[in-house]
Amino acid sequence: MLCGRWRSCRRRPEEPSVPAQVATSVALAPPDGGSRRPGLRALKKMGLTEDEDVRAMLQGSRLCKIRSRTWHKERLYRLQEDGLSVWFQRRIPRAPSQHIFFVQHIEAVREGHQSEGLRRFGGAFPPARCLTIAFKGRRKNLDLAAATAEEAQRWVRGLAKLRARLDAMSQRERLDHWIHAYLHRADSDQDSKMSFKEIKSLLRMVNVDMNDMYAYRLFKECDHSNNERLEGAEIEEFLRRLLKRPELEEIFHRYSGEDRVLSAPELLEFLEDQREDGATLAHAQKLIHTYELNETAKQHELMTLDGFMMYLLSPEGAALDPAHTCVFQDMGQPLSHYFISSSHNTYLTDSQIGGLSSTEAYVRAFAQGCRCVELDCWEGPGGEPIIYHGHTLTSKILFRDVVQTVRDHAFTLSPYPVILSLENHCGLEQQAVMAHHLRTILGDALVTQGLDMQNPEELPSPEQLKGRVLVKGKKLPAARSEDGRILSDQEEEEEEEEEEVEAAEQRRRAKQISPELSALVVYCCATRLRTLRPNPVPPQPCQVSSLSERKAKKLIREAGNSFVRHNAHQLTRVYPLGLRMNSANYSPQEMWNSGCQLVALNFQTPGYEMDLNAGRFLINGQCGYVLKPACLRQPDTTFDPECPGPPRTTLTIQVLTAQQLPKLNTEKPNSIVDPLVRVEVHGVPADCARKETNYVLNNGFNPRWGQTLQFQLRAPELALVRFVVEDYDATSPNDFVGQFTLPLDSLKQGYRHIHLLSKDGASLSPATLFVHIRVQRF
Fold it and tell me: Cβ(584)–Cβ(351) under 8 Å?
């Protein structure tokens, strides 16, 4: 009745001149026709044109780049007018794309000597003049020194403001900036007008190969002045046509009817069809007030097409359930009930044969939510233990420096406990030094005794251990003398994997555990797991077994449910085979299927394995702890990942369209992607599957598929869904374009946008997939 009353009396509010997917500032010419610096309008939209720090960055600064004790080079750095990228000078000119870095790719900006590089090589420069720009992914830190402390502070403050504003941007604003940057580049003579040749260049830049006749017809339809140039409102109209989303308009009109606006009851009908949790009239009204751009429509509780697009492009319209992006799980259960984000050879930045060891690798691991890091400890000169990959050409770092890095960075992203997995190759004296450094540097954060003295053998919860550091290593048996010899906690490698020849003295030292270090092992006592019996001995929760991926797979095959039960009450760490010389990874899913908590991967090596790890720990606030499904926590569980039972869930994904996919070869204007979409399910062996669409020829801007992919699942609570976009190639392997991975249980149903990520996990905004998702449980 309410809906009908609105239909009879309401008028269609006047819509904004430009649709929601692009802001009204896209035209090159400014309103006053004066300035020809259109990039500054992007900064104006960000509210930063008058900011003194940003204005100084636009002027540029000569900063000293520091790479070693003797390599100090002065370079010019200047913020681009788009406010999203920084241009820098190179001694040897390279491709234009290699002369900039993007603000959205910055992980952190640190003041002073707060990087390994500046601590080692920046002694000639006062800390007040120094800063470090740390990037996401594998890109090296940028260590810089300014001429004055004030200039350094301008860059620190300015980058902080730009990053904060970028984080706060809606998808609409991101798209505005994205298209604005390409418009500026395509306007080759910078006259604030666009010829047809410049329009064709723009189309190639944004990854679309449009037929010349069709492109020219579109151009002429917008050229109202009939002078073979588009300017002002004409450019605005061209972009409106270019950025049209017919598939969204069709959905909108299906619910809005002929008047082309959604009332709150009509929006509620859409939400109910989406199977949106908590879909109420009040929620629909709230969405209108949040996303509608037109004030008249908002006052009448109506949503225009623009507001509808804004909603679907927002986090509330994404495939990931927004309720799962914060800590929402019970964090009061024993540690063994959680999957824990874990790193192998954390100190390495590259291969395990000749790669660089760095404390920065620990900083990056923590920034990715890692909660268990590895310290491969060896005897060092001057009585100081060192960390490196033994018997290889990898560089060495001090154990003390790594512990300081843990203190400074372990809890910046997550408050939940960190586990230091010690692979100890040191003699008794340097083990005592290790214990001293752990105690003095970590202080009260280090767990040195049980929290519950009544039940010292029970594992505490992540909630109880907030802000605390645990040591995993060998512990002296209580009945032994303090200088007794026991097995080393060196990771157990099968003989066929790695024949390691050590000197007799090294073996002797490795078999001794100092009482000082042993005393720091409280809840994570390293022990070997040789066999599993169908009816295991009473659980010993404080024991942790370390298994190579090969031995873990063998236990999964042969022990099945017994291994699952073991992992319900004890921690198990799995690590890559020693034969993976290039630091390649294994698939972690098989280990998670059996309840292994500490599935350690080489964080420095991107690939689908790390995509799965990032997807597993994407939820629960990215805190590094994810509660295992009930079937992996119950002590008497009958679950066996090799025999999960019949299908219980059907996942149906209709791949509709993609938007603004990145160009893979930015230096070749005519290189356009031929995209296809592959959907992968990673879970128990019976659930693993991959299906893909056809490819679309020469269109990375707005390709359409409309293809349906369906999957049958037996253990949906363990499944991860990975969306992958590739550039099809008939003669060689397809090239990776972007991906997004998330747990099936965090996947929202209905029409959803999937915001794509790069190989390194960085945002590819504004690149998205648009899909329809349905999950049927039976």
Answer: no
**Which amino acid, residue 649?**
T
- d(Cα 151, Cα 130) in Å, to the nearest integer? 10
Question: 621 near 414, Cβ under 8 Å?
Answer: yes
Token pair recorded at residue 19: 């649709």
pLDDT-based confidence at residue 23 (cuts at 50, 70, 90): very low
Contact between 25 and 180 under an 8 Å Cβ cutoff? The reply is yes
Of 318, 268, 269, residue with least CA distance to 288: 268
Question: What's the rounded Cα separation, in Å, for the pair 777 and 724?
Answer: 25
Contact of 589 with 683, CB cutoff 8 Å: yes
State which H helix or E strand residue 675 sits in: strand 675-682
Neighbours of 176 (CB within 10 A): 24
DSSP state of 580: -
Q: How confident is the model at residue 668 (pLDDT cuts 50, 70, 90)?
A: confident
Count of H helices and E strands in the chain? Answer: 23, 29
Distance CA 526, CA 487 (A): 10
Q: Which helix (H) or strand (E) holds 710?
A: strand 704-713
Distance CA 217, CA 451 (A): 74
Place 196 in a pLDDT band, splitting at 50, 70 and 90: very high
Place of tokens 């066929």: 496
Rg over CA atoms, the chain? 29
Pairing of strands 418-424, 372-378: parallel
Residue whose entry in the numeric block shows the structure tokens 């519950």: 452
Q: Is 72 a catalytic residue?
A: no
Q: Are 712 and 725 in contact (CB under 8 A)?
A: no
Pick the catalytic residue: 389, 425, 566, 682?
389
d(CA 79, CA 646): 58
Burial bucket for residue 694 (CB in 10 Å: 0-12, 13-18, 19+)? exposed
Q: What is the mean pLDDT of the chain?
A: 87
Which residues sit opposite 649 in a β-bridge? 713, 777
Catalytic, out of 113, 324, 337, 344 = 344
**Residue 445 near residue 465, CB atoms below 8 Å:** no
**To 10 degrees, what angle do helices 428-442 and 399-409 make?**
20
300 labelled catalytic: no
pLDDT mean over 603-612? 95
